[in-house]
From TrEMBL:
<protein>
    <recommendedName>
        <fullName>MORN repeat protein</fullName>
    </recommendedName>
</protein>
<keyword id="KW-0732">Signal</keyword>
<dbReference type="Pfam" id="PF07661">
    <property type="entry name" value="MORN_2"/>
</dbReference>
<dbReference type="InterPro" id="IPR011652">
    <property type="entry name" value="MORN_2"/>
</dbReference>
<feature type="signal peptide">
    <location>
        <begin position="1"/>
        <end position="47"/>
    </location>
</feature>
Length: 1111
């Protein structure tokens, strides 16, 4: 609407409001041509109030007898308007070039009032209706270019919530396809859908597609939907929003709800009452529509019997449910007997109570024979579990004990073969650990294994294969492996001058071939190791193979063996199948005791000692009568004590001492009185935590740099809990000050630099940041942040579109963490990086800390895991610098520490990392050198994604995205010209990606560019740009379903709505401007867009445009 004021002329904006529920239902929307608008603006700028004498101004406009005549540059009339008192009043006629009528509109006092008609350039009517004070009222009809009715609408004028008069739909509204068939038949009430709404298919029969009742613009009542061929798809009664008493219900149904498959057969039938599921819910098989499941509900809760059937109609499942009150809330829970059948035969029965398995669960073979039976208690195995062979013979006889959440083996457990012969037996403690196991084969003992202590292995026919005393459950400490002719094959030991496990390989003649240390051959130690191995080999006694423990292996009674020279080898005892009494093993070299254990029916008591060859101590323990460790000692390779632990009878540690190799104290931790001391090898104090008792008990904790320079000082009043802590730089300047309560930050906190300048001041409340925090920059300017309960307060309107925050780890939760650089320098670890990544600023390696370290290594490979604490950006480029950048901590938040768990698997010899697992939560992927930029700052275009992990494998990168990626993309712009709003996109960043190709045929890329593509495949985006030609500026809107935004180029196929004009011309939707396609191509090329292909799709009624551009 254009208003011409009666006083001073003023240029106003032009707007055209299209009142339509579906813009895709018609092709031709009315807009003034750009040329006409410019001419009209010129008229407005010159118009004066009053009656005008016949005259011409600017050669374009003439007023005569209260009429205004407007001409174009060719002197053709483009407007004739009646006026009164300087305002349009009466009939206005607008014309296309060559005098073709464009519109007839009635005005009153400058506003549209009365009937109007709009025409196409061909002269056909395209819209007619009526205005009242510039707003549509009563009937309005819209036609296509050939005169077929597209819309039949009725408008009324209402006052909206802002108090403004608006035109809204009211009454019966109809929309049509351009073949004349009806598309939609709607009812409106004051601008909102109300009543029955019908939609029809665009097919030969113009069949009904849906019939839905609406109220207040929302589905409210009966609905029916049909497939394209007329078959019923679904029907029922649905309320998107309904008020019942004082409650608002959303998305609820009522009555029978039917869902059908495309072939017309049932898919699912539900019954609702009182807006809740009440009654049966039946599900049917795909295609055939056979009933396969029936459930029953009461007030949305499963209740009563549930039944399922197989594809032959036979019952195969039956279960029962009840409604019970749990934690003051009604829930559905399974109860009674659950039964499963297979092909009509009983398969399983299980007893349920309170929603958990409780009682016997039986599983059956198809012949009806019992296959397995077990007992559950509150959802957990608890009691006997037995399984059987198909012939009814017992297979497994196990015992389980519940620990509440899970269950563990307990006591004796046995396995049998099909002939009833015992094949395996083991005794379990009930805590997940076993004490002893024994296996059998063909009636002979296969092995006896006292877990972590002693192991015997046999060849068939009861010949000894190995006799090992174990360091732990998998590695031997001392013992022999034998050839089948009973000659020593391997000898296991730890040499007295070594701390690693040795394995000597022998010939059948007893000659030592080589000795491996932890699986590795070490040339320099071979001579001495071979000598030790020979000494042990010569003590091997042929009489061992005739001992009762070998000929008739039984875990009952006492056994004493001797070496070949008659000296004692070992003495052990079993009782009731379990190790019992004193177990002693003697060294073949020194004849000293190298192992001494004491058992009480499988459980440790008394003194335990492990030594290596030569009698040098490795470990020793003392046990309480209740089998908990009383004292534990650890020794170095020379037998010097390096660690000591003392526990109470409940197994709780109360004293820990650590020593340097020279015997000097390294660390003391007394958990009973919470005192500790750490000393350097020089004797300097590194830290201390001591009590000072005067009026109150004050705990004083200190740590030191070298030469006893104070590093940290903390004092806590144990009565009040109040205290304070200070940290210092090496130059003695205070680094931090914080008040404390109950060992936690509480009160004032201050941070200084090495010169004493204040950097940060804030407050803690119960270890959480609270209130105002001020950061001071180098110039003394303040950055003020606010916290509440440890959470930063972020004002929503200040957030960026893709802003994210990582609040998982507040700063104050980490009291101590070590830097990676203190373990290994960057140059050393960088050799392990995969070759296809380039770290950004060296991963800011010096600023990476870690906690929760764990590791397992040998001479060839290793594993390490930890939680990384990241104080700077942790990013890398892929595959080259300044191409794709992947930021693994883009949500860094002030007051919090970016973090994620990391796991590393590597090969020590090749210095290759063959798997790195980084458990990231959200990552950012940026195009570093792309023509697609961030429109807000002209920086890198970036996408953000939620992830489960990022995996760096030896050959390629793998990203495990979250089920919901929660993707977000910065607003984009290409060449400072083409604006891009990305809605959906997928990263294409994995090296050597196979079986992928753009979804658009003849996409403007060559194969080599596709094969080496790194970037985003954008599958949904809105675009817009200004097309300028011959002084005209046309705003064009487009969409795309395939755009490849790479690290150094962008290629796309975009679609622009509109219609084909004569010749090689195109008219955009919502515009009357004609665009020559060759001119458009040259225009885009001038903007550095290339490989341009332009075609018009008659089917889509869209202009299809492909392009390629580089930075």
């Amino acid at each position: 609407m254009i208003n011409i004021p009666s006083s001073k002329p003023k240029l106003r904006s032009v707007s055209l409001l299209l009142q339509t529920p579906n813009l895709m239902r018609f092709k031709n929307s009315f807009h003034y041509s750009l040329f006409f608008i410019l001419a009209l603006f010129a008229t407005m700028a010159s118009a004066q109030p009053g009656d005008y004498p016949p005259q011409q101004r600017n050669g374009d406009t003439i007023w005569k007898n209260n009429k205004m005549f407007v001409f174009n540059a060719a002197k053709e009339t483009i407007e004739i308007s009646e006026t009164k008192n300087g305002k349009k009043h009466g009939v206005q006629k607008l014309f296309y070039p060559k005098g073709i009528l464009s519109s007839v509109i009635h005005f009153k006092n400058g506003e549209k009032n009365g009937r109007y008609w709009l025409y196409n350039p061909t002269g056909n009517l395209r819209e007619k209706g009526k205005f009242k004070n510039g707003l549509n009222i009563n009937k309005k009809k819209t036609y296509d270019a050939s005169g077929i009715l597209l819309r039949n609408e009725i408008y009324i004028i209402e006052t909206n919530e802002e108090g403004k008069k608006v035109s809204v739909l009211d009454g019966r509204i109809k929309y049509y396809y351009n073949n004349g068939n009806i598309s939609q038949d709607y009812y409106y009430k004051k601008g909102k859908r109300d009543g029955v709404l019908k939609e029809y298919n665009r097919n030969k029969t113009n069949s009904l597609k849906s019939e839905v009742y609406y109220k207040n613009d929302l589905p409210h009542g009966a609905y029916t939907h049909y497939y394209y061929d007329g078959n019923l798809e679904r029907k029922g009664i649905y309320y998107q929003k309904i008020k019942v008493n004082d409650t608002i219900l959303k998305n609820v149904y009522d009555g029978e709800i039917i869902n059908n498959q495309p072939n017309g057969v049932r898919q699912r039938v539900e019954h609702w009452k009182n807006f809740m599921k009440n009654g049966t819910v039946e599900s049917f098989t795909s295609r055939t529509g056979e009933l396969y499941k029936r459930e029953n509900y009461t007030n949305n809760l499963k209740d009563g019997i549930e039944e399922r059937w197989d594809n032959t109609g036979k019952l195969n499942y039956q279960a029962y449910f009840e409604i019970a009150e749990v934690d003051n809330k009604l829930v559905s829970q399974q109860t009674g007997t659950e039964t499963t059948w297979q092909d009509g035969a009983l398969k399983k029965t299980a007893e349920w109570k309170n929603g958990l398995l409780n009682g016997v669960l039986n599983i059956y073979y198809s012949n009806g024979q019992l296959e397995k039976t077990m007992i559950y208690k509150d959802g957990v195995l608890d009691g006997k579990l037995q399984s059987f062979y198909n012939n009814g013979a017992l297979h497994q006889d196990f015992n389980y004990q519940s620990n509440g959440k899970d269950s563990e083996y307990i006591g004796w457990n046995k396995t049998y073969d099909e002939n009833g012969n015992l094949s395996h037996t083991f005794y379990a403690k009930g805590d997940g650990a076993n004490i002893i196991g024994q296996s059998f084969e063909n009636g002979f003992t296969k092995n006896i294994n006292v877990i972590g202590v002693f192991k015997l292995d046999f060849f068939p026919e009861q010949k000894l294969a190995s006799l090992l005393w174990m360091m732990n459950s998998s590695h031997p400490l001392y013992g022999y492996d034998f050839f089948s002719n009973q000659k020593p094959r391997r000898i296991h030991f730890i040499a007295e001058d070594n701390y690693q496990m040795q394995t000597a390989s022998l010939t059948q003649n007893g000659d030592v071939i080589q000795v491996l240390t932890n699986g590795t051959f070490e040339e320099e130690n071979q001579e001495s190791l071979k000598k030790t191995a020979i000494k042990i080999e010569r003590k091997s006694n042929p009489e061992w193979f005739n001992e009762d423990l070998i000929i008739n292996p039984k875990t009952q009674g006492k056994y004493k063996w001797k070496y070949a020279d008659g000296s004692p080898f070992f003495s052990i005892e079993f009782d009731k199948g379990l190790p019992h009494g004193k177990w002693t093993v003697y060294d073949a070299v020194s004849n000293d005791t190298i192992i001494h254990y004491e058992f009480e029916h499988g459980k440790p008591v008394g003194n335990w000692v492990k030594k290596k060859s030569g009698g040098i101590l490795i470990t020793s323990q003392k046990y309480y009568p209740n089998h908990n460790i009383k004292e534990a000692y650890q020794y170095d390779e020379f037998g010097t004590l390096i660690e000591l632990y003392k526990n109470d009878s409940l197994g709780k540690n109360h004293l820990h001492l650590a020593y340097y190799p020279n015997g000097k104290l390294k660390e003391m931790q007394n958990y009973s009185n919470n005192t500790s001391l750490q000393l350097a090898a020089t004797g300097d104090t590194l830290s201390s935590n001591l009590l000072r008792i005067k009026t109150d008990s004050i705990r004083i904790s200190k740590s030191f740099y070298s030469e006893n320079r104070l590093r940290n000082h903390r004092e806590i009043n144990l009565r009040t809990g109040m205290g304070e802590g200070r940290a210092y730089f090496e130059n003695g300047q205070m680094r931090t000050f914080h008040e404390m309560k109950n060992d936690e930050p509480n009160g004032v906190y201050e941070l200084y630099d090495e010169t004493g300048k204040l950097l940060t001041r804030g407050h803690f409340k119960e270890r959480k940041r609270d209130g105002e925090w001020i950061n001071f920059d180098a110039d003394g300017k303040e950055e003020i942040l606010h916290y509440k309960d440890g959470e930063i307060i972020i004002i929503a309107e200040d957030e960026d579109d893709c802003a994210c925050y990582d609040r998982s780890l507040p700063n104050e939760k980490i009291r101590f963490a070590q830097t990676l650089s203190s373990i290994s320098n960057y140059q050393k670890i960088s050799a392990y990086f995969p070759e296809y990544i380039i770290p950004f600023e060296g991963f800011n390696y010096e600023k990476i800390f870690f906690i929760n370290f764990r590791s397992d290594n040998d001479q060839s490979a290793g594993y390490s895991g930890m939680k990384l604490l990241l104080f700077e950006e942790f990013s890398f480029y892929l595959p080259l610098a300044k191409h794709i950048k992947i930021n693994l901590n883009p949500c860094k938040t002030d007051g919090y520490i970016s973090n994620f768990d990391a796991n590393f698997n590597y090969n020590v010899k090749t210095k290759k990392t063959f798997w790195v697992n980084l458990n990231t939560n959200r990552i950012a992927i940026s195009l570093e050198n792309s023509p697609l930029k961030n429109a807000s700052n002209n920086q890198e275009f970036t996408g953000y994604f939620d992830t489960k992990s990022v995996n760096l494998k030896e050959e390629k990168l793998e990203i495990d995205y979250a089920a919901d990626k929660n993707a977000c993309f910065t607003t984009g712009i290409i060449k400072d010209f083409l604006e891009v709003e990305v809605i959906k996109a997928e990263p294409r960043i994995e090296p050597q990606l196979e079986y992928w190709y753009p979804r658009i045929k003849d996409f403007p890329l060559i194969k080599n560019e596709i094969d080496k593509f790194y970037g985003f495949e954008i599958t949904e985006a809105n675009l817009k740009f200004d097309y300028s030609n011959n002084g005209k500026n046309i705003k064009l809107n487009a969409t795309t379903t395939e755009m490849l935004a790479g690290s150094n180029f962008v290629a796309a196929e975009i679609e622009i709505d509109g219609k084909k004009a004569d010749g090689n011309n195109f008219i955009p939707k919502n515009s009357n401007e004609t665009i020559n396609l060759e001119d458009l191509k040259r225009f885009l090329e001038s903007k550095d867009f290339y490989r341009i292909r332009i075609n018009f799709s008659e089917e889509k009624q869209k202009l299809i445009l492909q392009f390629y551009t580089e930075k």
